[in-house]
Amino acid sequence: MKMPQNSRLQSEKANEFCPYDADTEKAMKKFYDSLSEKDKRRYAGVEALKLGHGGQKYIAKVLGCSRGTVKKGACEVSDLPAKEVDKRIRQAGGGRKKYSEKWLKIDEQFLTVLKEHTAGDPMDERVVWTDLSHKEIRQLLDETYEVWVSKPIIKKLLKKHGYRRRQAQKNAP
Fold first, then answer.
1. Are the CB atoms for 97 and 91 separated by under 8 Å?
2. How many CB atoms sit inside 10 A of residue 58's CB?
3. What does the alpha-carbon distance between residue 166 and residue 159 come to, in Å, rounded to a whole number?
4. Between β-strands 118-121 and 124-130, what pairing exists: parallel, antiparallel or unpaired?
């Protein structure tokens, strides 16, 4: 006996809200990726409104966007007749540039700043760490090279170059 598509999905994903089959989800994602930023948000909102309770979470998962985006799209669509439709659509490549584009030599400068504050495991040269805090690294980059980056960027740079943060530990007597 062949099971219907929906019941098969529900048995595979026990207790998970899943109103569409896999083919429909793929088609929705493909269409979603072809839309502009504003249209993506509104499409996600319409789909979530159609599904009701649990729809926002499900649509966010299917389309690969945040639940906040779906919620904002649903609010925009609900208020659409009352307000004037925006004519502005962000062009591709608009928005803030990546830190690696803004600061071209960031990797070299970062490694230079950490050079005097680097230690490692003598048994394994791949394990390196620094005793500087994220704030201290950021200050040194600013003072030395006039490069300002945020704490998340410092974390990304540390991870990219294989650094770990180490601190002296007190042992209880």
1. no
2. 20
3. 14
4. antiparallel
